[in-house]
Description:
It is a single chain. The protein is an alpha/beta fold. It is built from eleven helices and ten strands. β3 (85-92), α3 and β4 form a beta-alpha-beta unit. The two termini are 20 Å apart.
Amino acid sequence: xxxxxxxGLPNHGAFLRDGEWGKLVEVAAAAERAGVDAxxxxxxxxxxxxxxxxPYGSFPGGPDGHWLEPLTTLAAFVGATSTIRxxxxxxxxxxxxxxxxxxxxxTLDQISAGRLELGVGSGxxxxxxxAVGLDFADRGRLLDDTLAACQELWGPGPSRFQSGHTxxxxxxxxxxxxxxxxxxxxxxxKLHGRxxxxxxxxxxxxxxxxxxxxxxxxxxxxxxxxxxxxxxxxPSSLRLRVLVGPKVDEVGVPTVASTFRNLPTILDxxxxxxxxxxxxxxxxxxxxxEEELYxxxxxxxxxxxxxxxxxxxx
Length: 314
């Protein structure tokens, strides 16, 4: 399978000024025209003052930062695109009632002709759970229950599921997703035992946390492939997304040319199937010129893959 190029779009922060968020739809359309494989948006429902607890470096923005709801944002992208895959990375799934999340995601999958993929996680901010009346300490079980209930609702009805938080009894949630095997689920975060089991039993792939080293990703992928084999699944079926950041030029400006310089090594070392590039990494140079950015990224990505294939054929 050819690795995919995924662009992380900025549905948060200061990318666009107030009243101009609609331009993000134009950016998504530009990514599709350039040949980008997938676009991804992130999630926070509310923010509190405890952002110093962010476990992956410096949090982007303050407690009053602007964050567009990701599923609504993807719905807007549907009307402006027709082929590009639509992803979340990650959606804090337990913050949404399972039946409502299942309905929203299935609707998105139907109107996008089967282009939705959900990257999910339990989140790290206690205030978000407080705001919706859920126990932050129970977020792992809540995530498991939410995903299990959604997958039950995405199958043929009547649906039945029982957990401490969700109860389904003889109900229907139509239409089901258009994708035959249901909506692909990716799990984000560190690979503690519960996350490993979640990926093996409910998902297709892993989204390593920001800041993970190559060695950590390699070891995590090895562990997941071993767990898949133990569960009777094909280890090579694991999907893995890695974040690739650009190098900067002599004046400190990120350059597209340097972004995929080491891509063949990264792919061969990690076995990654998807490569994530953050749009915001290039804002300094390409603000307002997104089509040019995506054209350059796709060309550089394709060139790196062709170079890798040429070396492999020797």
